[in-house]
Amino acid sequence: MEMPSEEVPKFAELPQADLLKSVGSKSCEAMTESVCNNDKSGIETEQLSENYKLNLEVPLNSDDVNLGPEMEKKDDSEKISDDDDDDDLPSLEDIEKTEEEINSGAKCKPFRIEDEPTRLTDEDGWLDILGSGDLKKKVIKSGEGAGTRPQRSNWVTVKLTGKLTDGTVVEHFDSLKFILGDTDVVQGLDLAIALMEKGETAEIIVPSRLGYGNIGRPPNIPPDAELMYEVEIFSVEEVGEETDLPLEERMKIGDEKRERGNFWYGRSDYSNAIHCYRRSLDFLDDEKQDFRNPTSELQKLLDTRLKVYNNLAAAQLKMDAYEAALKSVDFVLKVQPQNVKALFRKGKILAAKGKNNEAIAELKKALKLEPETKIIHQELAKLMLKKKQEEKAEKAMYKRMFGTTNVSSSQPKSQLRSWSLIVGGIMAVVLGVAVYRQLHG
Q1: Residue 266 burial (10 A CB sphere; 0-12, 13-18, 19+)
Q2: Among residues of the chain, what percentage have pLDDT more than 90?
């Protein structure tokens, strides 16, 4: 006997409680939790909502659709795999919330399919970029779309204003052009601007550790200062080949990066200084140019390049990268054999490598060129003293090896007689052997 079939009610007619039962309350809870946790599987929000539609078997536009047995189940083969294209990867700002943030009740917008949010922000609109709660970004005016975001090594032109927490303006540029990721700006801005779009205006909170640190930037930025920036992106351009730029522009950019390297060097941030110096050389080095008979413009470029190599060697020396530093100063000395700074730094590098005699020779060359420079005198005197101490230690070691240590004052004569008898005996034996061979030869 066949059972009478029940008429399936339309989706729109289902009460809210029955709707939850038909969908599955656990599935709804899983949806909200997954989105608030930024979906650990790494699926874009748009793809995520599509998957939820399929798994729940509830289409978005369901006013005239019946929930019947004829609805097809989604095949498991359509799940996103690890081998899918990069287009399925999450955007940069969709950083996973930590379990601690979730448990502490961090603000998170509830998931609604019709909203399909593309970014996870708190109720005030702030995006927690690193998940640590200190580097944040808030959109004031939307940009032209995610496809216009700047990439690392792109030229970015922005309007920028930086303030202390009390509102004091400490930085302002109506039009600042820089290369993203080249440490031309503080690290916090490098990270946040990479998440902005062309035409976008945003507020950015930069903590001290990603700003000017515990040194600050005297006189207007105190140590450990949190900064509030307002940034508007005007344009985004690709850099292209550095050597394709006009010579005058290359010189300008190269010198700016040299100065930026000096800024980091003065803050004892030698790693960033080395990066800036190397990027400067990308614009200043050119194998196509003939520097044997340089024009006045080429001579300026060459002089700037030698300054950069000299400064690069100083930063590498601070990082104990002796071989790299030696190559940098040798490049300078190849072009300018009497460059005092290069000779002085080469002396310090060789001394650090334990080659004191070579180091002293280089410092003497530098001192001959600039006899009034006190620091060369000091370094040379220090090395000469070190050399004497090493020679003294070496002699003491040889004495210990050959048993010629100092004897007590009460036994000098007996020690001498013993050695005399030993030497005399050896000589007598040798003489006897010689006479024997002569007589029986």
Answers
A1: exposed
A2: 48
Q: Which two tokens stand for residue 392?
A: 């003294």
Cα–Cα distance, 63 to 67 (Å, whole number):
11
Q: Token pair of 155, please?
A: 């030229």
> Does residue 410 register a pLDDT over 70?
no
Question: Are 390 and 356 spatial neighbours (Cβ–Cβ below 8 Å)?
Answer: yes
**C-beta of residue 407 within 8 angstroms of C-beta of residue 415:** yes
293-315 burial: b if 16+ Cβ within 10 Å, else e: eeeeebeebbebbbbbbbbbbbb
Query: Tokens 């024009």 map to which residue?
Result: 295
pLDDT digits (tens, 9 = 90+) for 9-63: 443 444 444 433 444 444 444 444 444 444 444 434 444 344 434 443 334 443 4
Q: For 117-126, what is the mean pLDDT?
A: 73
C-alpha Rg value of the chain to the nearest Å:
38
User: What distance in Å separates the CA atoms of residue 103 and residue 92, rounded to the nearest whole number?
Assistant: 24
Q: Please tell me the predicted confidence (pLDDT) of residue 435.
A: 66
Q: How far apart are CA 34 and CA 51, in angstroms?
A: 12
Cβ neighbours of 43 (radius 10 Å): 21
Residue 126 three-state SS: strand
End-to-end C-alpha distance for the chain, whole angstroms: 138
pLDDT at 209 over 70: yes
Distance (Å, rounded) from C-alpha 139 to C-alpha 203? 6
For residue 146, the number of C-alpha atoms closer than 13 Å in the C-beta half-sphere is 8
Check pLDDT > 90 for residue 201.
yes
Three-class SS state of 377: helix
What is the average pLDDT across 349-357?
Answer: 92
Token readout for 371 is 């006899």
Largest separation between any pair of C-alpha atoms in the chain: 142
Residue in 384, 375, 356 with CA at minimum distance from that of residue 314: 375
Write phi, then psi, for 432 (nearest 5 degrees): -65, -45
Long-range contacts of 53-60 (CB under 8 A, 24+ apart): 53/113, 54/78, 55/27, 56/23, 56/24, 56/27, 58/11, 58/23, 60/113, 60/114
Q: Is the peptide bond before 219 cis (omega within 30 degrees of 0)?
A: yes
Parallel/antiparallel/unpaired status of strands 227-238 and 136-141: unpaired
Run of H or E including 172: strand 169-179
Q: 150 — alpha (psi -120 to 50), left (phi > 0) or beta?
A: beta
Tens of pLDDT, residue by residue over 276-286, are: 999 999 999 87
